Amino acid sequence: MTDAAPPTVLIVGGDALALNTARELCELQGHRVTVLWSDDHEFARQVESVGARFVAGLPGRLGSLERAGVVNAVTILALSADDQLNLRAALRARDVNSEIRIVLRQFNRTLAPKIEQNLHDCSVVSLAWLSASTYAVSALDPSCFRGLHFPERDGKLTGFAARSAEEAGVAGETVADAEASLGLRVVALGDRTDFDLDEKIPDGARLVVHGTIERLAASTPRRPTTATDGLKRARMLPWRARLRRVDPFMAIFALSALALFAIGTWHFRYAFATNWLTAAYFVLATMTTTGYGDLTPDRNNIGDIGIAMMLMLAGVVLTGIFIGFAASLLTQARYVRMQGLRRIRRRGHIVVCGAGSIGSGVIDLLLPFGRPLVVVERAPDPAMIERARDQGFDLLTGDASRDDTLDLCNLPAAHSLVALTNVDTLNLEIALGGRVRNPDMPIVLRIADASFAASIARHFQFETTYSAEALAAPIFAGLSRLPGARGRIEIAGEEFGIGEMVLPENYRDLVPDGAFAIGVWRGRDLVRVHGFDDVSPGETVLLLGRRAAVREEGVTFAAVADRLQNEAAIRDPRDEPVESGELIKSGERAEPG
Asked: What's the CA gap between 522 and 539, in Å, rounded?
């Protein structure tokens, strides 16, 4: 590799994640980006439009990798939806370039940590697990806009949340006092991230805070859901929506029976010259063919006889219809029960629609927090059914977009709803149906396409709408440089990269310019800090770095790569290779991220 030619970052993949990652990398300095995938003119055009080079070929073949420049590449990101293809491409790249850094996308959450621990200079990430953290924290606390585990391997679920000083109850307090009362780290005060701890928080100030989800949820100003609230919301439903729930045939049947009963009662009230109750008694006995004989119409009065006969015939017909309808309801109820559908009586529960790869991760993250959980899945696998039985959450087998399925979920009394199916329009349909039943309920949406997600959030006012690919692309782009990259967030109008590292002795020479520490893992807990001076070497620190500094001239990919090669202390110990004879416990880590 000559000095004139910048290093190459090679991406293997042909979907939105690969394209978004290429876009992220092209915004940075000091390298060129090449995307390798099978021949696809439209995808090639999109890749070239973001500033990357497209090479057509089979990613698993050595010849294709060599044409894409793997020999001189510094990093390969294997991001296809095929675990085996990703691993094959990465290993073949390492065969011809022993110094290349490997970033793998893997769905297998058991295999991922084993690969990462045994393969030198390699990061293995699950897209589903990465995005599940954000979906889970938003379901628990709607003010959270980003979630992550810290530390990545076995830490706590943490989140970044936006609050106003009045909502948090800290207006007029100093930053230090506010942090102490909330148990959270104030990351931004208004449009500033650099402020003194003794500075007072003005009224109306917007805060960005970070902490464990337990502390965030505990400090969220939200009126608790009660049984009365649920009844009020049910009554607030639009009358047209409530009418749509009534079976039209049953409505016609009931109205016809009531009309006939009323007409008969009115006629015989005057025919018998008696009171309304006695007339109603006679009509009911006639319509149900009970016929006690204590009251009989005047057989000399043709009108009375005709109306009585009409009531008898109509009664037989209506009684038959009623019996048939009741039998149908019982049969349907039995079938619904066999299919795993039943009416939910819980309150304050979280409804998760979709139990696929992301949904399963969200369920894993939500269960430890003690919130009642209701999962709706069209075709749950046996493992999910077994988990529901063992872990005590409700599993409904049905289509969450159907009104009758949503009606079973008791949404008027729910804490929140998360729509995580694989179809964007289906998630939107679920969300709109949930909003009709509970307009105040927080709704978290998964939308695959980032631009479509932004449009839905803007036009339908679903603020917690996230694209899994958009959440993961900055993480994969960051991992191409640093093993501890955790993504990107926007705070106070400025973009910040999130990073995790074991603080080395000479950290002052290694920490990127503009980076500052916000937390440290100490004593099996997250401790908030305000600078690297509060952290001891060897501790795992969570830091934020201004992304503008990374884009500046001189902060190149090659410079970062040199830092990694020349100073091993910056690398997390989990990235060190494990000896072949060492046993790795499969349960040591459920999922990277």
From this structure: 7
Q: Look at residue 392 and tell me if it is in a domain.
A: no
pLDDT band for position 332 (cuts 50, 70, 90): low
CA distances (Å), origin 85, targets 61, 63, 468, 471, 511: 10, 15, 21, 23, 35
Q: How many independent structural domains does the chain possess?
A: 3
> What is the tally of helices (H) and strands (E) in the chain?
22, 21
The answer to whether the beta carbons of residues 178 and 199 sit under 8 Å apart is no
H/E segment holding residue 464: strand 464-466
Looking at the structure, tell me whether residues 311 and 253 fall in a common domain: yes
Q: H or E element: which one contains 162?
A: strand 156-164
Q: Which of 283, 305, 338 is the last residue of a domain?
A: 338
CATH code for the domain of 316 = 1.10.287.70
- The domain boundary, picked from 165, 200, 218, lies at 218
Whole-model pTM: value is 0.76
Note down the domain range covering 203. 132-218
Using CA atoms, how far residue 457 sits from 346, 452, 467, 472, in Å, is: 29, 9, 11, 19
Question: For residues 77 and 103, is the Cβ–Cβ distance under 8 A?
Answer: yes
The answer for residues whose C-beta is within 8 angstroms of residue 21's C-beta and 6 or more apart is 11, 13, 77, 79, 473, 476, 477
| Average pLDDT of the segment spanning 493-513 | 80
**What pLDDT is recorded for position 132?**
93
**Among 541, 522, 545, 521, CA closest to 533:** 541
- Residues contacting residue 191 through CB under 8 Å, at least 6 positions apart: 492, 493
Cβ–Cβ under 8 Å, residues 459 and 453: no
pLDDT per residue as tens digits for the range 115-174: 988 999 999 988 888 899 999 999 999 899 999 999 987 789 999 999 899 888 899 999
